[in-house]
Amino acid sequence: MNLRWLLALCVGTALTLGAAAEGYRQPSPAVRAALDAPLPDRLQASPDGRWLALVEPRRYVPLAELARPTLRLAGLRFESNNRSGLPSTAVQGLSLRATDARPGNERHVNLPPGGTWHSFQWSPDGRHYVLQRRTAWSTELWVGRAALGDPQPVPGLRLNNVLSDGEWVWWNAGELLALALPANPGPPPKEPLPAPESQEHSGRGTPEPPHTGLLRSAHDEALFEHQARSQVVRVNLNSLGFSRLGEPGLFASLTVLGEGQALLTERLVRPFPRLLTWDDFPQVVEVRNAQGRVLRELAKVPSRQGVPVDGTLPGPRVFYGAPTKDASIYWVEALDGGNPANKVAYRDRVMRLDAPYTGEPEEIQRMPHRFARLRFLEDGAHALLSEIDRARGSTRTYLLPLDGTQSRALFEHSLRERARHPGVPLMRTAPNGHRVVHTAPDGSFWFVGQGYTARGERPFLDRYSLRDAPVQRVFQADGQFELPLQWLDAKRLLTQVEKPLEARQWGVRQAGAWSPLTAPQEPPAPVRALRREFVSFKRDDGVDMSFWVVLPPDWQEGQKRPALVWAYPLEYTDAQLASQQAQQSERSQWPPPGSPAWLALEGYVVIYDATMPIVGDAKTVNDNFLEQIQRNARAIVEKAEELGSVDVRRMAIGGQSYGAFMAVNLLAHTKLFKAGIARSGAYNRTLTPFGFQSERRNLWEAREAYLRLSPLLFANQIKDPLLLLHGEQDPNSGTPVLQSERLYHALAGLGQTVRLTVLPLEGHALASREAAGQVQWEMANWLKRHLGEPKGR
């Protein structure tokens, strides 16, 4: 057993009342059934529009898998044997069928047992699909043919996902590039005897977030280098053979240039800064030929140590490869030295280097604000360029000619804009495997948006022209949520339909008519039992607010029940933007494990997704954070009393992460609630001295704000019972488990009623079935103890 894990578990167990004797607890049968209900399938259409894959996601990570020995190095958490972290979306089942087949005619794919399947992807021509299987000893690549079904492994290939996170890139429609273990990785470096660990710094300031799991010794550095070292391999999907390209290295990124003319690699190099995570280490960017030989070193990118808050590196950064046959390389350079405090006319510029990569780069665009993203159109002559003005909280998108001629601004909007948000580009996988902006033969392209309205979301599809022509609305949903996903061909549009608390369904829209591609999935009984209602109202200064109220299945008209309010604060630069957050959503939104909504099955009224707007200047908005969350909370309580279903004398407040921080502050500064639940939060802002959430000032620039916003410093004012829940291996820089442990220690020392449960092996979110059940039991038990039995009166 990992010694560090054992020690942390012992600390957490000692702090948790009765945890040693309790073990994992289970919620009521109704909630357990809800937590165990299968997740809805996910659909992926092949790029050519001929095939559909119905992917059944795995709901939980087995506790035994979480308990396998892991390494925490350079901000990463992974297993040393299989060189992989936990996949974000594991595949439990897979079915395939042709697009023109009837719903229900899917062919089940046999996925051999033993290991975790993940990372399903179609090949660019739709003839193959690719999966990975993660076992206790290796990570494998499997390939299947769409027309035949079951996948086969690539013999002898062991992937290294330490830095790649399971991603690969396409060399062409039938070949991909991946990162694998070197042919002869050798043994790991021998762990030395314990010795003092020293760090020293002088000179330039280093305002780094306080990350966990960083490198702490020379042995850590050597072990990280051994584990992350990989070999670029080229895999043939037809023969299932592979070849090695070049020499092994610490490859962080691969990009195929054009139609396979060359390869762009980003490789980590020493020294490895002890205060940074791996993605901020120094890198060398190189162009390589088809055999992996270096043709040219493009840049030595230094580490991000010492970069100002909201700043960036002063030299070349963010490299892109053109998806078309010109195979050019693009990158970004700061014109303000990377420091947002410098007053300049332009902050960034985009550079271009053409094949064969021997000449000098040319500048093709300057931007008054900080670069955000570059997306290429299929025509090879244009791209969509986005920039961010953090001071104003806005973003702007340009249509950029890649020959360096004048760009055209398409739109500008607030980062928090909802009602007038123009959407995002409709993307597709090109025949050579690159992701590009889907472009029509006449050069026009599409944007798809959520379409927020007062009646709910009504997604739309807009057509933009390369000429300065009006935007044309091609489609807008009418009466329900219907989201455009992909053009299957010139006339058929794949869309996703959702209804409240129901599973999503996919279909094809053609000539104004919609026909289903998949059969509707009936929601599980616990979902159908929930009675949900959208409520909108205003706070005392006129800002619109809203929440969803979930009533127990046995609630009867006239009853008043105890209630839990669950919220998450969001910052806005003006009241109009804040009011947009209160618009209704009609998406399915099945409550995930750990959701407070399931407490309605225990008999409580649950007020969740309560808007918690914080309105003010982006630089100083937190100066009024406490006043605004109190104003919001009073408005929520007043509206809850008006509904008539809530006993406002028995209300609890809760939240996750920044919502937990909000909840504890409300307990410290108001008497509106009788109890609180705080999950994975931060309660001492002096432990995040270089900013948090939207706060960009450091502790010494805004000392008063940091102190006022730290509920730990007001623990003596928290008189109501507080339940603290935290994942023992929370990787977030601002929310290590230490935050909850210190607040528990303070409240216990003051004689207050508090309970802390530390969930072993869990991170910032819930992963295992056992932890999901424990959290639901903890919340229900806490409400019963401190709000009373949820009986109507």
Automatic annotation (TrEMBL):
Q: What is this protein called?
A: S9 family peptidase
Domain named Peptidase S9 prolyl oligopeptidase catalytic is located at: 635-788
In residue numbers, the region (Disordered) covers 182-214
Origin: domain of life: Bacteria
Picking any one GO molecular function of the record gives: serine-type endopeptidase activity
Q: Does the keyword Hydrolase apply?
A: yes
Q: Which Pfam family, an example, fits this chain?
A: Peptidase_S9
Q: Name one GO biological process term.
A: proteolysis
Query: Signal peptide location in the record?
Result: 1-21
Q: Which UniProt keywords apply?
A: Hydrolase, Signal
Q: Where is the composition biased (Pro residues)?
A: 184-195
What is the originating organism of this protein? Inhella crocodyli
Q: Is Hydrolase one of the keywords?
A: yes
